[in-house]
Write a structure and sequence with these properties.
binds zinc ion, 12 strands, alpha/beta, 12% strand, TIM Barrel
Length: 383
């Protein structure tokens, strides 16, 4: 009696073990999902093929010849395994009105670049900072965008002390699209408008630290030859990364004629090519104004990014902090935020805190994400 019960239970366990192996054909259902949309599915289970029937007849003498037994109706409910969900990291340090948004539609592409060899480590940040005037010592500052020479010097030293370095706009393209390797703490120092004097103030720091300054340069016809010559000569140092800031610095509105918007988008590309021999890959929206038409034209013109004047947070791979106005555009890369120079040290501190938290979060989900990559992504692109 005892033995027959033992064999009966063993037979059942063997059968159960066979039942919890999920079908190998699951990955086909996963194409086209996104990082923000968890996928649910019902796994197809192997059907047990045991067909024997219950025939054991225990006797008082307990003969040791039981037959393993099972019927399909004796099986417990089918277990349903769930795919690990690939989520967007939430940073407590962001303002409550800011939401981090991903922009890559394919989860497998994202994970391959996130965990691939030679890529930027999770937690790698880019801090775009918008500069305007730097007041000469002793000058009273009466506007919201000017910083003192003292604060400027403090900030440049502080950034260096925290281990920050600069990247160019083209490096940002590589980082945001394929997570190409950049320094873990990166900045884009962006100087708005035509400010040769301020550009010159940056120069010694750029040389000393091997940094670059990104110019948001309006290419207006009003630029005289002397100014062009001065800027071209500064650019020869290789320290300037000239990007578009419109042609006539028009604040684009919904009523702005299409022709004017086109001029703002297309004209600077040619003028920058003529004077600096480089092609801009970003537009820094004049006045911070953007709309859907302008974004569409920027895409068509081959520009990869647009920058606003909203201070939202740092950039990470497939992670852009946005407010409501930018989210409405449904084009995160064309409404990238910028911190303001007036609180640039606070920006660096916040960015570092977010970087550290993102690193920790990445470690927490690494096993799940690698499992996803291994089991649900086609292996063609992986080595
Ligand atoms: Zn401007």
């Amino acid at each position: 009696m005892k033995y027959s019960t033992f064999f009966f239970v063993s037979g059942l366990l063997l059968l159960l073990a066979a039942c919890v192996q999920p079908s190998a054909a699951l990955s086909d259902t996963l194409k086209g999902d996104t990082a923000t949309q968890p996928i649910e599915f019902q796994a197809t289970m192997l059907v047990p093929s045991i067909t024997s029937t219950i025939t054991h007849t225990p006797t008082a003498t307990a003969t040791l010849t039981p037959i393993p037994t099972a019927t399909r109706t004796a099986l417990p409910p089918t277990p349903t395994p769930t795919i690990p969900t690939v989520t967007t990291f939430i940073a407590d340090e962001l303002s409550p009105i800011v939401t981090p948004v991903g922009y890559l539609a394919d989860t497998c592409d994202y994970l391959e670049n996130r965990w691939g060899r030679g890529k930027s480590e999770p937690g790698t940040i880019v801090v775009p900072i918008m500069f305007h005037s730097i007041a000469k010592p002793g000058r009273v500052i009466s506007d919201a965008t000017t910083i003192s020479t003292e604060y400027f010097e403090f900030f440049m030293a502080y950034a260096e002390e925290l281990g920050f370095s600069t990247i160019t706009m083209d490096e940002l393209v590589g980082f945001l699209t394929e997570n190409e390797k950049i320094p873990e703490r990166s900045m884009l120092l962006i100087l708005d408008d035509r400010r040769p004097g301020v550009t010159e103030l940056f120069m010694p720091y750029l040389e000393a630290n091997d940094w670059t300054l990104t110019l948001a340069w309006p290419t207006t016809e009003g630029t005289n030859d002397e100014l062009w010559a001065r800027m071209e000569s500064l650019a020869e140092s290789g320290r300037l990364d000239v990007q578009s800031h419109g042609h006539d610095h028009i604040y684009i509105q919904d009523y702005t004629p299409l022709k004017e918007i086109e001029e703002e988008i297309y004209r600077p590309i040619e003028v920058i090519q003529t004077h600096f021999g480089t092609t801009p890959s970003a537009i820094i929206w004049p006045g911070g104004n953007f709309n859907e038409v302008a974004i569409q034209l920027a895409k068509e013109a081959g520009l990869r990014f647009g920058f606003t004047v909203y201070s939202r947070g740092p950039l990470m791979f497939n992670w852009i902090p946005l407010g409501e106005a930018e989210m409405e555009m449904d084009a995160p890369l064309y409404v990238l935020p910028r911190y303001w120079s007036t609180a640039a040290d606070v920006a660096l501190n916040q960015a570092v805190a977010i970087s550290e938290a993102a690193k920790q979060a990445a470690n927490g989900v690494k096993a799940d994400e690698l499992y996803y990559l291994e089991h649900y992504c086609p292996a063609i692109k992986r080595d």
